[in-house]
Amino acid sequence: MSEWSFESNKALIEERAAFLASKVDTEGEFLPQRVRESFELFPHHSIAEMIDHTVLASDAKVGQVAVLCGEALDNGFASVCVNPCHAGRAVSVLKGSSVLTCCVIGFPLGSMSTRGKVAEVEELVEMGVEEIDMVINVGLLKSGYFQAVHDDIQAIAAACHKGDTHLKVIIEATCLQSPRLIIDACLLSVAANADYVKTSTGMHKNGGAKADHVRLMRWCVGDRLGVKAAGGIGSYADAMAMVSAGASRIGASKGIKIVAEEAGAPMAVPATPVENPSSYYDGFDINNVVTLKYGTSKGCFFGCGAIEKFGDILDDLKPSCVGFVTSKGAYKRTGAWAVIQRIMGERNVPHLLFDKICTNPTGALVDECTEMFRSRFDENFVVCAIGGGSPIDAAKSVAVLLRYPAETSRSLYLQEFAASEAAPLVAVNLTAGTGTEVDRFAVVSLLKEDPPLKPILVSDSIYPCYSINDPFLLRTLPPRLTVLTAVDALNHVMEACTTSVRTPFSAALAQNCVQIVADWLPVAMKDGMNLQARYWLHMAAAMGGMAFDESLLHITHALEHTLSALIPDLAHGLGLAMIQPAVMGHIWPAVGNILATVFAPIIPGFKGVPSEAAKASGALKTWLHSVGVTDSLATHGFTQKDVARLVHCTRSCPGMDGLLSISPVPCGDDAMAAIFSGM
């Protein structure tokens, strides 16, 4: 019989309860009910309602905590669990919501004095903290000082209950290991009037939550106390194993991943095993917010916690009002909005919000947003995009049109006037591929034209004043979008390093971008919460943007703009992926020597000679399939009968002839038709 089975522990629980009652002076009962095996305690509609969304790292930044609160609000988590230094900020963000503020004390060792713990609790309760997770004094318990352990818990419980705050007692079960000690810790918590027992801090060398421990804890406390499982719970399957064992609360830093898996969100899996990237990357601190100088007029703040720099941006620009341009959902889901709202409120800066931007934004939406912002526009008005390429490009367009009250998106993108001025622009980037946060380009779809068009806007006036790349905000980016945005970055550099105006600078950026994508995309596909992977993919995207800002683009983007003009909801990265292998094959004879070097991390073994063109094209297609991109023009409804129309649409779109003219090889109508025909 297993030492963790009910039958082997029922008698032991009753025996330990009687023993502790004889040794410990308490008003509480150690065993207020008969020991039974099963309980029906959890009428939750979803796992989200059971999750304590957690960040307890010692180097957690203020911005990360604010983002965590935003995610908890959007997903309906039970609480946000933070270190005491972040309690006030969490309370202020979560006030009035159903999400509770939880703080740890005595963490992670539990070995400080009872008086010190009580003082900490009293301060937190006064601040409005609604739950306390305390670490039991494991050393005293193992030494048999049961009265001292009981009194420690009881004093903290009393301090909590003065303010209707719940107490969870972390027993560090993997450290205790034996059923007897786990039982003792649970029964002492019951007698001391705690509200929950909790498995672990997640920081002990023996590991975190185990289902056997949760089950034993539930048998001990019955339905009088809650049971929280925490430590190493990284998936929906992990969480449900704990719930099945008797957990009523789940502590996890990967709550977003857990609820996504519950909802059945597709999780991409790399075709080859993921290896740890080079230790080279460890030489850079992802929590150090740096300022990239290229691609903005004042700076791109880059690193985990960069969103907190929004306050510095406001202090510098001193806006009379900020007009936010974004799409539905992402600006809140990522947590960016919670931080920005707080910073705006601290400075009493008014704002307008336009949240209707869609994939491949239309001129009609740009005009609607511009009209809204004109009601508050003055010389100190600031436009701020929150999102990926679509919101940022739309915001760039709005920023120009605010300076030209007689103009529209149509006249702007049909190049009927020179866009030499724009309102101050800030870009908060929420994807890792667009590059538009560090360049002077924008695209908008004019769907009412015949044929529908997706022209480009190029102007130094639309460099952002500031941009923000905070990898922490990318944790909720879905796997499919993670891949497609990385593919966008790869196309940027494939084209930039091979245009007729290429430079060694753009080629160096290209080489680094491809290496980073090769190293970190598989990691991000496997674990979207990996901040190092998010950081480096963000960097690769910025490098891609800088590369084509330097040396422009050519065939792939010219042809893709036609595809997404005709299919407005086609993701830009997907449109590029469907034609990129054919474009590589077309240009390889002229620039294979460059491409063989730049793309060696994902298609190795090529010498760059012209005869390799077809093989290189096939290798790139194979790599795209390996990361889950198997779409083709045919799967999206195009047939050979559409080829002539696709060529005509490309020729009709303003700016596309300019891109085609700097291709490394000629790209006339026949060449375009051949690329489109490879569907």
UniProtKB/TrEMBL annotation:
<dbReference type="InterPro" id="IPR018211">
    <property type="entry name" value="ADH_Fe_CS"/>
</dbReference>
<comment type="similarity">
    <text>Belongs to the DeoC/FbaB aldolase family. DeoC type 1 subfamily.</text>
</comment>
<protein>
    <recommendedName>
        <fullName>deoxyribose-phosphate aldolase</fullName>
        <ecNumber>4.1.2.4</ecNumber>
    </recommendedName>
</protein>
<keyword id="KW-0560">Oxidoreductase</keyword>
<dbReference type="Pfam" id="PF00465">
    <property type="entry name" value="Fe-ADH"/>
</dbReference>
<dbReference type="InterPro" id="IPR056798">
    <property type="entry name" value="ADH_Fe_C"/>
</dbReference>
<dbReference type="InterPro" id="IPR001670">
    <property type="entry name" value="ADH_Fe/GldA"/>
</dbReference>
<dbReference type="Pfam" id="PF01791">
    <property type="entry name" value="DeoC"/>
</dbReference>
<dbReference type="GO" id="GO:0016491">
    <property type="term" value="F:oxidoreductase activity"/>
</dbReference>
<dbReference type="Pfam" id="PF25137">
    <property type="entry name" value="ADH_Fe_C"/>
</dbReference>
<dbReference type="GO" id="GO:0004139">
    <property type="term" value="F:deoxyribose-phosphate aldolase activity"/>
</dbReference>
<dbReference type="InterPro" id="IPR013785">
    <property type="entry name" value="Aldolase_TIM"/>
</dbReference>
<feature type="domain" description="Fe-containing alcohol dehydrogenase-like C-terminal">
    <location>
        <begin position="482"/>
        <end position="648"/>
    </location>
</feature>
<feature type="domain" description="Alcohol dehydrogenase iron-type/glycerol dehydrogenase GldA">
    <location>
        <begin position="300"/>
        <end position="471"/>
    </location>
</feature>
<dbReference type="InterPro" id="IPR011343">
    <property type="entry name" value="DeoC"/>
</dbReference>
<keyword id="KW-0704">Schiff base</keyword>
<keyword id="KW-0456">Lyase</keyword>
<dbReference type="InterPro" id="IPR002915">
    <property type="entry name" value="DeoC/FbaB/LacD_aldolase"/>
</dbReference>
<keyword id="KW-0963">Cytoplasm</keyword>
<dbReference type="GO" id="GO:0016052">
    <property type="term" value="P:carbohydrate catabolic process"/>
</dbReference>
<dbReference type="GO" id="GO:0005737">
    <property type="term" value="C:cytoplasm"/>
</dbReference>
<dbReference type="GO" id="GO:0046872">
    <property type="term" value="F:metal ion binding"/>
</dbReference>
<dbReference type="InterPro" id="IPR028581">
    <property type="entry name" value="DeoC_typeI"/>
</dbReference>
<dbReference type="GO" id="GO:0009264">
    <property type="term" value="P:deoxyribonucleotide catabolic process"/>
</dbReference>
